[in-house]
Amino acid sequence: MVKIFVITYSTYGHINKVAESIVKGLQKTGVEVGRYQIAETLSEDILTKMHAPPKPDLPTIVASQLPEADGYLFGFPTRYGTAPAQVKAFFDSTGQLWAQQALMGKPAGFFFSTASQHGGQEVTVFTSLPILAHHGMIFVPFGYAHPYLFDNSEVIGGSAWGAGTIADGDGSRQPSEKELAIAEAQGESFAKVATKLAAA
Q1: Chain segment 72-86, per-residue pLDDT in tens
Q2: 1 to each of 32, 155, 194, how far by Cα in Å?
Q3: Which residue range is the domain that position 32 belongs to?
């Protein structure tokens, strides 16, 4: 059975909520799903001052587990148009896998969260692509594969690069039903591509 890892880093929980819909979409196709979070690097004292909620009860992934999967969907918020330091630290730990070419040819996609409509949803993925390129991984964009991506009647996160949500500057906005529908569709679409690649 094809195995897909959904790997997230989330400070305030928005990404984890989107990930739930990503997983629903993956499961529609019958693939096996592994759900993981990236280790936190901030101290509890700092997180408390940031009013960050407790982390979800999910296993923390380590780089050596990555070869177990056939594909990956990574979810994280933006930090000035790039991945958070926690995500960068995780990818920095994959050097041995790079040397072994252990992730060569495996598909990967992204979903994301920003504070505003123009907060870097697309560029956050764009700045993460070199990681995939160095590992020889295959970037699987979502495309405009859901009608809500054409809906301009309200604020809706996500793009051709992947599903997304907009949290507002204070984190008060939660993922909308339309954003979650896009995420579910991305999960289903990604699973189909990963299955085809695994069978090749």
Answers
A1: 999 999 999 999 999
A2: 7, 38, 11
A3: 3-199
pLDDT the model gives residue 117: 87
State both tokens at 196: 């085809």
Q: Tens of pLDDT along 28-46? A: 999 999 999 999 999 999 9
Ramachandran assignment for 156, one of left (phi > 0), alpha (psi -120 to 50 degrees), beta (any other)? beta
* Residue 47 to residue 78: CA distance in whole angstroms: 17
Q: How far apart are CA 148 and CA 182, in angstroms?
A: 7
CATH number at residue 45: 3.40.50.360
Strand partners, 113: 77, 165
Name the residue among 58, 57, 52, 61 with its Cα closest to residue 11. Answer: 52
Question: How far is it, in rounded angstroms, from Cα 190 to Cα 168?
Answer: 28
Helix (H) or strand (E) holding 165: strand 164-166
| Distance from C-alpha of 104 to C-alpha of 85, rounded to nearest angstrom | 24
Number of domains the chain contains: 1
Is 135 in contact with 128 (CB distance < 8 Å)? no
